[in-house]
Design goal:
The chain is built from eight helices and 13 strands. It has 371 residues and is α/β, with parallel strands linked by helices. Helix 2 links the parallel strand 9 and strand 10.
Length: 371
């Protein structure tokens, strides 16, 4: 009897433990304790579900209708190392949302609509975060400015990879990445960047990969080239940009030839404009368009010649004019005297009439005559 009771109690305890494990998985989610993984994919969730098991290391909450996340969203998940929140329509990330996730190394917020990013949104107590994916996640330029503040205040000094691709970025705020001293990979592809400037890439000495493909770069200015030169370890990708191969692109083309070991796709870079240069290798542009300066020098010489010829013609005309004046000096002098005498007579006539009109005696005589 005693042995039967012990066996029954063991079964009850086992069932209770089994039930607790089963109950620990949130509704509409799939949990695997063996894989330390929880998936809540495309379940129309409106918030982060409660009751996520503490053993979870990999959490996938994607394809839902979650609008905001905050500090209360991930309590009790100190073991979490990888968190994917992509495609949830998240618009707001509050400060300290991930603060207690001591083991968090990878955070994916791609394909969201981040309009408000609070200053310490990405702060993690142990500074364990290594990968941050914000591809197709920023709602507008205001959110870009919020992101800059958050990158500065969230203590991301150990971040290794940052993905900002597909965000319609036209230009980057000054010193945007200056607080990410350990950054090794920066993805800026498929945006609308028109220039690299304002010390955007300063203090990224550890950067190993920079992806600038599929942007709107027509050339790279001297300032942009200096910024790229400040990344001695970085391999750069520049493909699929609308490079305009006209006069002035030579410094970029020459720099490209010198930097082929760092520009991974240098040999595939082609001119997009003008039509006469389309599909011409940028590596060959330096020698092809140096003629711009030769043509400019020829144009300057022609312009200078025109100025000299014009000066000679004007000088010749002036000389003829002076000669005519000299030959007709007597007649001109007589005409000047005649004009002077005529003007004097007219002036004396006006002066006489003025004296007549202003004499009171004459006005009285005129009045008596009328009577």
């Amino acid at each position: 009897f005693v042995s039967n009771m012990l066996d029954l109690m063991q079964r009850v305890v086992f069932c209770a433990l089994l039930g607790s494990v089963c109950a620990s998985c949130p509704p509409r989610c799939e949990c695997s304790e063996a894989a330390h993984t929880v998936k809540c994919v495309s379940k129309d969730l409106r918030g982060i579900p409660a009751g996520i098991p503490g053993y979870t290391r990999n959490l996938f909450i994607t394809g839902n209708q979650i609008s905001r996340i905050g500090p209360e969203s991930f309590r009790g998940l100190e073991n979490l190392t990888s968190l994917s929140l992509s495609n949830n329509r998240i618009s707001e990330v509050e400060s300290h949302t991930f603060l207690r996730l001591r083991s968090l190394r990878s955070l994916d917020l791609s394909n969201n609509q981040l309009a408000v990013i609070h200053p310490e949104a990405f702060t993690v107590l142990s500074q364990s975060l290594r990968e941050l994916n914000l591809s197709r996640a920023l709602y507008n330029y205001s959110s870009v400015k919020d992101l800059v503040t958050s990158l500065r205040w969230s203590s991301l000094g150990t971040l290794r990879g940052l993905d900002l691709s597909d965000n319609n970025l036209i230009f980057l705020p000054p010193r945007m990445f200056s607080h990410l001293n350990s950054l090794q990979r920066l993805q800026l592809s498929n945006n609308s960047l028109v220039a690299i400037q304002n010390s955007t890439l300063s203090d990224l000495e550890q950067l190993e990969e920079l992806d600038l493909t599929l942007n709107a770069l027509k050339t790279l200015s001297e300032e942009g080239l200096q910024e790229l030169d400040s990344l001695p370890r970085a391999a750069v990708l520049l493909g699929d940009n609308p490079f305009t191969c006209m006069c002035g692109i030579e410094p970029f083309a020459l720099w490209l030839n010198r930097s082929q070991d760092r520009i991974r796709d240098a040999e595939s870079l082609m001119c997009a404009f003008p039509a006469s240069m389309k599909n011409t290798s940028l590596l060959a542009v330096g020698s092809l368009t140096l003629g711009c300066y030769e043509r400019d020098a020829g144009a300057d010489l022609a312009l200078q010649t025109s100025y000299v010829f014009l000066g000679i013609v004007l000088g010749f005309i002036g000389l003829i004019f002076v000669l005519v004046l000299y030959l007709n000096r007597k007649g001109i002098k007589k005409r000047i005297y005649d004009m002077r005498d005529a003007c004097r007579e007219v002036w004396e006539g006006y002066h006489y009439r003025f004296e007549m009109d202003s004499d009171p005696r004459l006005s009285q005589v005129s009045t008596s005559a009328d009577v």
